[in-house]
Each structure stands twice: as C-alpha cells, then as structure tokens.
Protein: S-protein homolog
Organism: Brassica cretica
Amino acid sequence: MIDNVYGGNLLKGEKTTLYFRNGLSYKKWLKVHCKSGNDDMGVHYLKPGGIDYTFSVHDNVFGGTLIWCTLSKGPDYKVSSRFDAYKQNNDKAHGKSYNYLAKDDGIYHSNLVEFKLHKKFDWK
C-alpha cells in the first residue's frame, strides 16, 4: 500500500460505517456474518437489547467496494437473509452510515440521508 506523508493511504476513499442491531422479539439472538472480496469480518452473535455490531470500510478509489452479509435467527440459525449490505456508488450520497435492524418480519435499513427505517430484506 502507498501511504502519503501524513500517514494516510492514497488508495482509500470515503469511510462508511455499518451498524447491525438485534430487534428480534422473545429474547432471540441474531447471528451476523459479513464479508468482502478481501476480508471476512467473522461471525458475531447479538443478544436482544445488547450492543450493536459495527465496523467501517473505506471505498476503493477505483470503485467496486462490496460488503455482503448473512443475518440468521431462529433455532440453529436456520432462518437467514443474505444481502449486499454496502455497494459503493459514488453517484449516490448515503451519509457515511448504513444501519440495519433485524426484526421478526425482516431486515430494515436506514442511512444518514434517508433517516426513516424501511423494510429492505425478507427472511428466507
């Protein structure tokens, strides 16, 4: 990697933070597993009403940054939803934040441009 004189990386673009929250009922745990083409963020288990799982990514200055995640619930985490949680789009502002809330009926999303949570993905 190439670092500039200030210690930054010239190939790093805008930073975006992804937040995942467990909003499931009946004290159900949520399993979150996210990956990119280069990294595996590992498996994280979120307890009901617990701390959010967060991580940040930097856009590639050449484009193409993609993070996909699988959220799972239920006995043995057999009910899940796999989706692109972040896809770099330099033409669309998103406020540097992607927020995901897992509820019993699906996965809800918001960002700092579109504040209101809306259902984006179903469980399968």
About this structure: The radius of gyration is 16 Å. Residues 105 and 122 are 7 Å apart (CA to CA).
